[in-house]
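Quick one, T. Sequence first:
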Amino acid sequence: MKNGKEHGFFYWSLSYHKKFVRTVWMIPIALILIIILLNSPGFSLLFKTVAIWVLTATLVLQLVYNYFRWKQEM
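Structure tokens:
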């Protein structure tokens, strides 16, 4: 931290608080991707289901992990 502010663009150089905030901002993007995936006729139902579950699970696990690590840093 420099002058009380965090500087960093790359995900791995951020604190857990900033990682958590960035992950929260990814929720609307994930929802848009899910809607696009559901409306695309070129993929099978199995692929759509697996992709949605993987995207959702990754986002939730990342949120939980970064939240608890952020609280431990405090």
